[in-house]
Specification:
By secondary structure, this protein is mainly alpha-helical. 72% of the residues lie in helices and 4% in strands. It has one domain. The chain has a three-stranded parallel beta sheet. It has a three-stranded parallel beta sheet with strand order 2-4-3. α7 packs antiparallel against α18. It is globular, with a radius of gyration of 22 Å.
Length: 469
Amino acid sequence: MLEFMKSIIDTFGSAIIVPIIIFIIAKIFKVNTKKSFLSAVYAGVALQGFSLLLNSFTPIITPVINQMVSASNVNLPVFDVGWQATSLVAFSTSAGMIYLGLGIALQTILFLIKWTNIFQPSDLWNNYSYMVWGAMVIGVTGSFTLGIACMILLNLYSLLISELVAKRWSSYYKYPNCTIIAMHNVEASIFAVIADPIYNLFGLNKVKLNPVYLQQKFGFLGEPMTLGLFLGMFIGILGNTSDLFSLKAWGQILQVGIATSAVMAIFPKIASMFAQAFAPITEAARKFMEKAGKREWYIAVNDAVGYGEPATLITGLILIPIMLVAAMILPGNEVLPVVDLLALPYMVQGLVAIHNGNIVKVLVSGTIWFSLGLYICTWTAPLFTDMALGIGIVIPAGALLITSFNILGKPLMGLVFFAFLTANPVFIGIAVVLYLVLWFVFKTKKDRINEYLLKQAMKNSNATESNIA
């Protein structure tokens, strides 16, 4: 049964599964069949559009990133194999397969009993993030119960963080009643919430470095399409520093520039179509929820829907060379980030939403938090490597250990994982109690917390009605 469920997810993908879920939700809210059908089709077409766009962009920019890594001449023993390989490892474990079914049931029940306002089963694929950590707990402790319990608690933390950032993410990215849920990409939001007022003390909220200001200040040179061209060329130059005077190098530099520009130009058009899919549901849900006690709710969407937003893509790409330098200079770090460097625009979305697109704040938060993540990857690499070898994953030549910078570089979730890894009831109890306290505080103070996050967002010099409302 679990293999069958996995085959459905693998075969159809989010571009098919999400529209079906949207159609069902629309009908639950009594949207007429025509509008429900069109909403589903809009969502499917947009998700497929995101996939086609990013799948075309990846093979163009990946060689440049690899060249950048090679040119650094860094010899670190832990190689970043990327989230794709990590997901394969997760879904290949027995614990992962069991959580595939258990997770769907848990996430649905939590939404129905109003423990959370996030409908997570619309983003089933990213459950592999919990599976990896839980499978490593089982590998070390030998306890299947502890491994499953670790997955459940990580899922609960992820839902809480997702609900914390939901209103800001939905407002900033302009997707009504949508948010991201993938633990590996939403976790950094917690750091942004804590760091934001500190940044304001140093005046970073007054720094006008954001897509809106750049467009107003520099005209056509500040438009997202032009910024994409320059940023792409900059990344291309960094990947060709040893061969800048060759025709081949400039061919690649210009190709990356145009490709990045294309993402910046095309992405908003696809995004508007995706947002259009939720308009009928949002209106119907508003009326429905008014009768049912005005319940606020959000549907989980894949992080790909935010990848090409200007501030997101700009900060994500700028962080690529920054994180490479960080890996080289951080004492005690043994990880060479490679494959998951291209995932940085996924990883910064929680930061972008909380910091309201303030590029300087996002870069500072990203550098600090993802640098801490390198240490978590360093510590967990032996455990992940053993698990990967057990299912037949081949380690790249020259590497002693492997990791995933995106999936395993999570400081907060790493602490929860280490609590279970010890199998110590005291440490596990602390992790559970901390979650319950945070959940209670958020649920009882949710309106005040959302109001606070809104005020913090408005303090940025780039605050506009469009990204605040």
